[in-house]
Specification:
Elements: H1 2-35, E1 38-43, H2 49-65, H3 76-85, H4 87-100, E2 107-116, E3 119-120, E4 125-126, E5 129-138, E6 145-151, H5 171-178, H6 184-205
Parallel strand pairs: 1-5
Antiparallel strand pairs: 1-6, 2-5, 3-4
Helix pairs in contact: 1-5, 2-4
Length: 206
């Protein structure tokens, strides 16, 4: 009987070890994705229809204005530097849109680490976690936000040829994003893990 229990315990430990290794490999690929992207977040002033429409107008103007800014970037760091170099261009695009829509509120643009939940796009999914980002906060920044990716250029206007994650990442890493349904549980586990990390960081700052 003891021998049987030892065998069962060995099998159970083996399965647990296999699961941990599998998640560790998945999390490593997620980290590669997060480190290799430069994202965009636009936070609306409020959730009124007007403010949400303004948010989308700002989005369209930024994407059209910067469609050639990031096209030659080879990696996320280069994209971040391009954003810094062209921050006046980006700010002018936002200001132009606000003026055209007769908005009385101001805005703030920042390049910083920003936390994102797991995000499902039309044909790919991005894991939760911190990404280097351009964050545009409109007015009181109290409304729903819009987000996408500036590098690689998967959020370019429809008339422009978009990049693919396969252009930047290895096939097995990009596969995670394009075949998220095969990793549903691991995506959820990774999101919970990232949120716990965020809470721990906040506690440390207190």
């Amino acid at each position: 009987m003891n021998k049987l229990k030892k065998i069962e315990l060995s099998i159970a430990l083996g399965l647990i070890f296999a699961v941990v290794l599998s998640f560790a490999g998945f999390e490593s690929k997620c980290e590669t994705i997060k480190r290799g992207m430069f994202r965009l977040r636009i936070i609306a002033n409020s959730d009124t229809k007007f403010d949400q429409d303004v948010k989308l107008a700002v989005r369209d103007e930024i994407l059209n204005t910067t469609k050639n800014v990031f096209c030659d970037c080879k990696d996320e760091k280069a994209a971040e530097e391009k954003a810094k170099e062209n921050i006046d261009l980006i700010n002018n695009a936002v200001l132009k849109t606000l003026n055209e829509n007769h908005c009385e509120y101001s805005f703030k643009s920042e390049i910083k680490k920003e936390f994102f939940d797991t995000r499902v796009y039309d044909d790919f999914t991005l894991p939760a976690g911190e990404y280097n980002s351009l964050v545009i906060s409109l007015g009181k920044a109290g409304g729903h936000n819009w987000w996408c990716v500036l590098f690689p250029g998967v959020c370019l206007p429809a008339a422009t040829e978009k990049d693919s994650l396969y252009d930047v990442f290895s096939d097995d890493t990009a596969d995670i994003a394009y075949n998220a349904k095969d990793y549903k549980i691991r995506f959820k586990t990774a999101e919970i893990y990232e949120k716990i990390k965020q809470k721990y960081k906040k506690i440390k700052k207190q």
